[in-house]
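Researcher: Re-running this chain for the archive, since the previous output was lost when a drive failed. Same request as before.
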Amino acid sequence: MAGTPPPGPFRPAFWRSPIRGPWLTAVLGLVLLFGVTLLFVTGLLSYAAYNPGLGALNDKTPDKGLLGFYLFTWPTRPAWLYRLTQGVHVTLGIVLVPVLLAKLWSVVPKLFTWPPAVSPAHALERLSLILLVGGVLFEFATGVLNIQLDYVFPGSFYTLHFYGAWVFMAAFAAHVVLRLGRMWRAVRSRTLRSVLATDTAHTTPEPPDPYGLVAPAPARPTVSRRGALGLVGAGSLALLVVTAGQSIGGSLRRTALLAPHNRDPRPGPNGFQINKSAAAVGIRASDIGPRWRLEIHGEQRRLTFTRAQLLALRQHTAALPIACVEGWSTDDQSWSGLRLADLAALAGTPHARSVLVESVQRRGAFRSVLLAGNQLHDPLSLLALHVNGAPLSADHGYPARVIVPANPGVNNTKWVRRLTFRT
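Model: Regenerated structure tokens:
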């Protein structure tokens, strides 16, 4: 018969958990409502921090169209801004994984509804559910892989994650609009205090619901709703403990067990995290040896400097962290070198609106980047030659690298060979 579901999960009696129901689903959904919204906002801020409006070098999603409606010039102050927003984005994403898995568990019977569609409206609802579940799994999976610097997915992480986020959030927003009233009624159907006071022996199923979440033939409880919430909360807390240290930095970085730990150079003034080593991007000794020169191009003149000549110019210092899209960041490091604004003046372009920074790096992304006018004119923005009182190491960008407050780490170009100031 067409209406008879096949054996297994397509039959309602297959699902027997006595704690599955509208209340638990609604509580988990409420947490995700606030958590995912904050993830989306901080993700949009992360994209804006690359200043994609400056041009193709910075824009990893050139076909974004109206999706870039909100873009603005990323500020340089406070200097720890990107460290905060991206740290929150990555840490919160990891912390929400147990909540997400619990929410999917709570609604899994809905994924096996039979028949799959009984009307065009029902088919549309099922399609939106596929986009919602598929979208959230895609976003979390690519995000976690990016944190681990494990790019096993095809294409650019930035493009996939950006467009995936918009597809997921469209389905998420539609789902919230359609389910908000139902969720609110379910949350109010029982108090959190009563749930926390109920042990496993006294746990009973919720009344039958029209949405197919409550098991028609529930088994005896093996865990209470209190225990389920405690398990999810403990999982999130554990992930917070082993993740947050990579964003906080300092001694707490040792607690970040899930962060890549093969990116720390040997101890010393240059002994703080890197993303990619000089060898990994094809930097050769001859590229950064005695024959290295820095070219500065401006409207009125072109200049060439050796490292010794740069060191002979007036030096400035800035205490700035490095923060990357993967969520890790360092404490403030003491950088010294030349202000980008001073170099713009030397090139005869004191009122430059942007600067093109080019590296000797031969392969890999971010070999060149554009910095906005507010970035190059900030007094803390340097072409750094030293860090923590020592010359830059090769892995940290010797002979010279850019360091700009509140700038994503990949845009603080290393192994700089040319600066082109533009008006």
